[in-house]
Specification:
By secondary structure, chain A is mainly beta. Chain A contains no helices and twelve strands. Helix content of chain A is 0%, strand content 50%. In chain A, strands 2, 5, 6, 10, 11 and 12 form a six-stranded mixed beta sheet that branches. The radius of gyration of chain A is 14 Å and the shape is globular. The model of chain A has no long low-confidence stretch (mean pLDDT 93). By secondary structure, chain B is mainly beta. Helix content of chain B is 0%, strand content 55%. Chain B is globular, with a radius of gyration of 14 Å. The mean pLDDT of chain B is 93. The chains are: A mainly beta, B mainly beta. At the A-B interface, strand 6 of A face strand 5, strand 9 and strand 10 of B.
Chain lengths: 115, 116
Amino acid sequence: AQKITQTQPGMFVQEKEAVTLDCTYDTSDPSYGLFWYKQPSSGEMIFLIYQGSYDQQNATEGRYSLNFQKARKSANLVISASQLGDSAMYFCAMREEGGSEKLVFGKGTKLTVNP
Amino acid sequence: DADVTQTPRNRITKTGKRIMLECSQTKGHDRMYWYRQDPGLGLRLIYYSFDVKDINKGEISDGYSVSRQAQAKFSLSLESAIPNQTALYFCATSDRTYSDSQETQYFGPGTRLLVL
């Protein structure tokens, strides 16, 4: 069974609007971390945001916020006020703290911001 | 200057050759990682290091070795390159500590490796 599911292969959003990228996860480990990464077409990997399983508040970093719903095992990324430079592939990932430093990745969502 | 640098940025090599990918960081982080990315997929962990004397295998360490020469330097070697090691390789650091629930990661620009 997939541990990280990103159900949206592609998403489109108008510039300046908000967009939510979905991510659900599956784990029996009580301690885990959730990550979002951005990968533009240039190929670089950019860390966006981290949420620990014990964190009570949703993580935020500038225009990025992580909508963490633990009971639903959901960790959606919200990008506010989309910019053209936000067009990229976005990956959700999980690290189960009971094991190694291994990250399990979803298949990614390709976001396109339209002017 | 970039926080994490990788050299070379691109490399073409032949099957059986030994090559080294180098990574340097200026963040002062203890934790460093090597990942590979295959087309259309996320990252897979090759090796990671918590400090100069603490090096650990990741999920796909076969065919690779690493050296942590200093806190700032973490090198990845392919002992005898094979075509299925053709991939994009990333070095990364993390500011994570055992007592801190927060984490920020920093990635190098990546090395595109082609093994013929």
